């Protein structure tokens, strides 16, 4: 039977880094569900209808490096408020979670909506300033022309939209373990997450 780890939290809290490391440590598959919404957002920027784009999404659409830009992140959070877009992406996520080897899914609503029976639920947070700083360093490191102020404003705008929407808002599941990474290095956050998963195995 599949062992499911749900990792939710706001933008740039460290979910991606933690999820990849947890998946590698336990030999689980990993799905960054933000990529689904980013892929739909990118198609909408290119002129597509959001619901049609979500309904015809192909897993190869997720492998595009251009999905990592702040513009696509904003478009993702705009399409993510549409209930029909979310509904079109549920089956793929649940199918992924059911893989025999075990799976780590990270996103906003994994522990609350997609996999409410996940064996482990982590809610990863950090202050908006910490998250913006990390995202800024990541984007600048890739050679993108961004300022810390713009990244902070982007992160706050996306958080507000994700938290306040009607469809699957960003909120910790009642049974989630909170992990605040503000004062942790990546290595410390990974160690803490692995311990939590280990305890549930
Ligand atoms: O995680 P990432 O920052 O790549 O997600 C981009 C956007 O996709 C988020 O701001 C959020 O609006 C949306 N999203 C979502 N549910 C998920 C994953 C992402 O609504 N499970």
Automatic annotation (TrEMBL):
EC number: 2.7.4.25
Class of enzymatic activity (EC top level): transferase
Any one GO molecular function term: dCMP kinase activity
Example of a GO biological process term: pyrimidine nucleotide metabolic process
GO cellular-component term (any): cytoplasm
Cellular location(s): Cytoplasm
Binding site for ATP: 9-17
Protein known as: Cytidylate kinase
Species the sequence originates in: Yoonia maricola
Source organism phylogeny: Bacteria, Pseudomonadati, Pseudomonadota, Alphaproteobacteria, Rhodobacterales
């Amino acid at each position: 039977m599949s062992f499911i780890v749900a990792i939710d939290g706001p933008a740039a809290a460290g979910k991606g880094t933690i999820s990849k490391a947890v998946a590698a440590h336990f030999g689980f598959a990993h799905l960054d569900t933000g990529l689904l919404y980013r892929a739909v957002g990118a198609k909408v920027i290119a002129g597509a209808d959001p619901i049609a784009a979500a309904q015809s999404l192909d897993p190869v659409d997720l492998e595009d490096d251009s999905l990592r830009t702040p513009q696509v992140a904003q478009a993702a959070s705009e399409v993510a408020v549409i209930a029909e877009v979310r509904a079109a992406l549920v089956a793929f996520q649940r199918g992924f979670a059911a893989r025999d080897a075990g799976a780590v899914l990270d996103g906003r609503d994994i522990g609350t909506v997609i996999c409410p029976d996940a064996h482990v639920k982590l809610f990863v947070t950090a202050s908006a300033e910490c998250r913006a700083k990390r995202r800024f360093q990541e984007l600048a490191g890739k050679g993108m022309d961004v300022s810390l102020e713009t990244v902070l404003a982007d992160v706050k705008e996306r958080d507000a939209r994700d938290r306040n929407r009607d469809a699957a808002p960003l909120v910790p599941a009642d049974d989630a373990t909170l992990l605040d990474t503000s004062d942790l290095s990546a290595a410390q956050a990974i160690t803490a997450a692995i311990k939590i998963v280990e305890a549930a195995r």
